[in-house]
TrEMBL record:
Residues 105-171 form the Thioesterase domain. This is Acyl-coenzyme A thioesterase THEM4. It is a peripheral membrane protein. Keywords: Apoptosis, Cell membrane, Cell projection, Cytoplasm, Fatty acid metabolism, Hydrolase, Lipid metabolism, Membrane, Transit peptide. It is an enzyme of class 3 (hydrolase). CDD domains: PaaI_thioesterase. It comes from Brevibacterium daeguense. Its EC number is 3.1.2.2.
């Protein structure tokens, strides 16, 4: 189900507010920008059915009614990631703004792990396969993942073994592998239901 335009628009404005709060150090300019965003939110709230979004975010596909902090257009803490199927890989290209920083100039390691888990999960569940869930994810941080630089997050199935899907992937920046990951996704046993 696509995100309603009013919801996506207000989530985008909230992302802009979050970015302003972490990036702007001048209090007067911060106050001015916060007031600008507040006006935009009030205008949209007065006429929610009239709000449009010129370029609506497309769903990542593997999570119905996505509200995740990784790819949801309605979740203001999500970048949001747009994951696409490319050959035999799930792939996402994005640039993370300052609110995802951990150490100066670097994406927080937990955010890095979240992005990899999300892209590998997309690959594990691609092609109409029965749903599977992360059992473990091992992340190797080979080099810094920079904030404000174009990143490519890639995931693929290395092999299958019954209900098990062994996954691998990486994050690249300017063609250089910065982070590697490998993990195991498992389909629930028949009749045991799904984890959520």
């Amino acid at each position: 189900m696509p995100t309603p335009p009013f919801t996506e628009y207000t989530a985008r404005l909230t992302r802009e507010l979050i970015h302003t709060l972490v990036a702007e150090t001048d209090e007067a300019r911060l106050a001015e920008h916060v007031a600008f965003i507040a006006d935009k939110l009030a205008e949209a709230a007065a006429r929610p059915q009239q709000v449009t979004v010129a370029d609506p975010h497309r769903s990542a596909g593997h999570i119905p009614d996505d509200i995740t902090p990784a790819s949801s257009a309605r979740n203001p803490i999500a970048p949001p990631m747009l994951i696409e199927w490319d050959g035999d890989e799930s792939r996402c290209e994005l640039t993370l703004p300052l609110q995802y920083q951990g150490p100066p100039g670097r994406v927080h390691g937990g955010i890095v792990a979240t992005m990899l888990d999300h892209v590998l999960g997309n690959a594990a569940n691609a092609g109409g396969r029965p749903r599977s869930y992360t059992r473990y994810l091992n992340v190797s941080y080979d080099a810094a993942t920079p904030v404000g630089e174009p990143l490519v997050v890639v995931g693929r199935t290395a092999r299958h073994d019954g209900r098990k899907r062994f996954m691998e992937g990486e994050i690249l920046c300017h063609g250089e592998v910065r982070v590697r990951a490998e993990g195991l996704w498992i389909e629930p046993r028949e009749g045991l239901g799904h984890r959520s």
